[in-house]
């Protein structure tokens, strides 16, 4: 079986599900270029816990974890099956790496999971297992989570980190738009791309001190942390390919990364 890459996707606003734009096109192209996975594990910026948790529902609910959007968005469903056996396997792999995990049989799919998957695999016929992130652990912890799951790539499992390369919702009120991007967006995404291309994991782990405008791009960590899960899954020396999906609302960079393991 051909080993799969790992992915980091910027899921953007929940409205991306109804107005996919460039993000939808890039995600559909990416899915079409990949071997079909037997299952998908998604580490979402909207599944937060103090320690690792793994969703093990046989038929996870579509969770509308947001408010104030058009009624049509709340009617969207992503009825993919779960995979309780894979969820238990994920928990076991994490525990073996010294990262004890809780298996949650009731966890549904938040919009960080179903919005991008609906654009990648609209038939919703591939089992999905949600995985929490732990913001208190920081980037190095999430890198270790990814490394613990790296062999899943060779077993037909696609591991995705879902967040946003820039994510400062405080700036929604600052007048930025498609025509007027926030000045920190391009320098930050360029720095991330350059450090990934250079394989500079040490700088990326220290991004809050080293990246330009890090505090503006990410007042809190949770939307960048899934990137480190994807990096960890790909392993040392992985090749990072950036797919540019534009900038939404002038503040949300929609970058997508594909990580292929070193040859």
TrEMBL record:
UniProt xrefs under SUPFAM superfamilies: LigB-like
Listed Gene3D superfamilies: LigB-like
InterPro entries per record: Extradiol_dOase_DODA, Xdiol_dOase_suB
Cofactor: Zn(2+)
Record's keyword terms, sorted: Dioxygenase, Metal-binding, Oxidoreductase, Zinc
Domain annotation Extradiol ring-cleavage dioxygenase class III enzyme subunit B: ranges: 29-236
Domain of life: Bacteria
CDD domains assigned to the protein according to its UniProt record, in alphabetical order: 45_DOPA_Dioxygenase
UniProt record similarity statement: Belongs to the DODA-type extradiol aromatic ring-opening dioxygenase family.
Protein name as annotated: Dioxygenase
């Amino acid at each position: 079986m051909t080993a799969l890459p790992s992915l980091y996707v910027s899921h953007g606003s929940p409205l991306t599900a109804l107005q996919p734009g460039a993000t939808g096109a890039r995600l559909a192209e990416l899915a079409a270029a990949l071997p079909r996975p037997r299952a998908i594990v998604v580490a979402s910026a909207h599944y937060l816990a103090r320690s690792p948790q793994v969703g093990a529902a046989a038929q996870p609910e579509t969770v509308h974890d947001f408010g104030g959007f058009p009624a049509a968005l709340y009617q969207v469903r992503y009825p993919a099956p779960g995979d309780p056996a894979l969820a238990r396997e994920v928990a076991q792999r994490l525990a073996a790496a010294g990262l004890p995990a809780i298996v949650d049989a009731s966890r549904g799919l938040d919009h960080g999971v179903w919005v991008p998957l609906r654009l990648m695999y609209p038939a919703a016929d591939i089992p999905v297992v949600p995985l929490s992130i732990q913001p208190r652990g920081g980037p190095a912890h999430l890198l270790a989570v990814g490394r613990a799951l790296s062999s899943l790539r060779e077993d037909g499992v696609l591991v995705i980190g879902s967040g946003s390369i820039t994510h400062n919702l405080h700036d929604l009120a600052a007048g930025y738009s498609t025509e007027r991007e926030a000045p920190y967006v391009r320098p930050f995404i360029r720095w991330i791309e350059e450090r990934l291309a250079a394989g500079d994991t040490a700088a990326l782990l220290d991004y809050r001190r080293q990246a330009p405008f890090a505090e503006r791009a990410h007042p809190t960590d949770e939307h960048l942390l899934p990137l480190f899960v994807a990096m960890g899954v790909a392993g040392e020396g992985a090749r990072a390919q950036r797919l540019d999906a534009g900038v939404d609302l002038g503040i949300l960079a929609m970058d997508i990364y594909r990580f292929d393991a070193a040859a």
